[in-house]
Amino acid sequence: MSKRESYEAKTEEFLQPIVQEYDLEVYDVEFVKEASEWYLRVFIDKPEGVNIQDCERVSRAMSEILDKEDYIEEAYIFEVSSPGLGRALKKDRHLQKSIGQAVDVKTYKPKDGKKEFHGLLEGFDKETITIKTEEENIVFLKTEVALIRLAFDF
Fold first, then answer.
1. Which domains, ranges and CATH numbers included, belong to the chain?
2. First to last CA, the chain
3. Are 16 and 41 contacting, i.e. CB atoms less than 8 angstroms apart?
4. Whole-prediction pTM value?
5. pLDDT one-digit tens code per residue, 26-47
6. Helix orientation angle between 3-21 and 52-69, rounded to the nearest 10 degrees
7. In a 3-state reduction of DSSP, which class is residue 50?
8. Kind of pairing between the strands at 114-124 and 102-111
9. C-beta of residue 27 within 8 angstroms of C-beta of residue 44
10. What's the chain's average pLDDT?
11. S-S: 29 plus which of 1, 8, 52, 67, CB 3.0-4.6 Å?
């Protein structure tokens, strides 16, 4: 397990009792470097949507734990937010909740001359993701998908 994965796993472990107390769920945790800054980002969710008070409660409670436990060596910025409407579907549990919904898929390399696809998420397994477009079903290897996120129209 890399240092990044270790930080993310430990953060998620500490978050579980906090989010349960407020009837929330941990959607995702990421520890990433952007430009010269490290960020520890926590994305929380609930069926009716997350509000600013939810983010504030989780941020305050988790900040105390981060200060006390001090398990991250690097200096970082801590953020808590909602995954948003066009949320990335990074984990199998995200894909499972999103079956039948409209998604946008971006691939690393062109597939049939395109790198961007739109359709309904039909299903997935350990190695593949299937979407249904107006023309056909398209099966992607998970390794060729750069990003899959919920689609939304305004």
1. 3-81 (3.30.300.70), 92-150 (2.30.30.180)
2. 41
3. no
4. 0.83
5. 999 999 999 999 999 999 999 9
6. 130
7. coil
8. antiparallel
9. yes
10. 94
11. 8
